[in-house]
């Protein structure tokens, strides 16, 4: 159980990447390990799938909003390394090779991500990256023009992970190519101290999976939300520019979420400062799902340069929860979330009750509707109507702030934090 608790030498990634949460598309949740290209050529893990998704990101307005990564997940490689010990793509499903795919993606102003696993095999049973292969695989990915690596942890021990994850950070750095590094390390160690040391993790990885894989269901989304916010005192301080908690992919546009639940996932991932990695079929996505994922104000909040992860600040007996994320220029995002399953609920509160500064005045914009509510004072009571399993999300800009002593500016978000006036 060395896990993350080792006193590691200085292994800081220092790659200057992922200063805001990465955005893009990822194959796993929607397309899994479908390798039967004879029976299902349109949906199997093949270069064709990634060519087509790259076209959609480039042509359907995604790229301009910041969705720039096309990420290959598991099951892309041949079943064996080549004679030189190098990973090779499956020759039938990726006949052009990964370099050609990276070139195609780059030509469209996008970036390519790839998947590896620190173990004997990947989770899908393909060749893993054992410790002896770490440097070689990093060099291979760099030579192919890869821009992000997700390194999973199936078929490896805690000791191997404690050596291998930092070693891959060093190996990626040594290639000279900027490669965003996504680690699954904490997820394999239960996601919490003492096994997971988030101070060390933030120096090694740009983002990390802390918890279970998302599935295409509302139950799965809720289980992730519960775990992240139950453990927010540990997780929230670990996130920031260049190092993010990753609650896993956006499943909006698939089969398991209603319209209200889709809006809720988008709002809660945004308030968590989570990477926005969609896993859906962009060729057939509905206009309503697309509208949620392409909400400009939502993306602006997610990509806020301060990079402070939000927190749950209220949990009511009525099954209403309130989440707050402090943003740059003394702005804030509030999410009012209903776990109810009966009917729309009218929730009444005030900014004062939510610990906003006394005597401040805010302009409030509804993130989904766009409607602006002018001049809301901290003391004013207000009501929001929240649909079952739905959200109301607000963006608050200060119109007038009280004069505060300078020490308030230094306040770090911690337990029961108040929005700092930055």
From TrEMBL:
It holds the Pfam family Melibiase_2. PROSITE patterns: ALPHA_GALACTOSIDASE (PS00512). One of its GO terms (molecular function) is alpha-N-acetylgalactosaminidase activity. One of its GO terms (cellular component) is membrane. One of its GO terms (biological process) is glycoside catabolic process. Residues 1-18 form the signal peptide. The keyword Glycoprotein applies. It catalyses: a neolactoside IV(3)-alpha-GalNAc,IV(2)-alpha-Fuc-nLc4Cer(d18:1(4E)) + H2O = a neolactoside IV(2)-alpha-Fuc-nLc4Cer(d18:1(4E)) + N-acetyl-alpha-D-galactosamine; a neolactoside IV(3)-alpha-GalNAc,IV(2)-alpha-Fuc-nLc4Cer(d18:0) + H2O = a neolactoside IV(2)-alpha-Fuc-nLc4Cer(d18:0) + N-acetyl-alpha-D-galactosamine; Cleavage of non-reducing alpha-(1->3)-N-acetylgalactosamine residues from human blood group A and AB mucin glycoproteins, Forssman hapten and blood group A lacto series glycolipids; a globoside IV3GalNAc-Gb4Cer + H2O = N-acetyl-alpha-D-galactosamine + a globoside Gb4Cer. Homodimer. PANTHER family: ALPHA-GALACTOSIDASE/ALPHA-N-ACETYLGALACTOSAMINIDASE, ALPHA-N-ACETYLGALACTOSAMINIDASE. Removes terminal alpha-N-acetylgalactosamine residues from glycolipids and glycopeptides. Required for the breakdown of glycolipids. This is Alpha-galactosidase. It comes from Platysteira castanea.
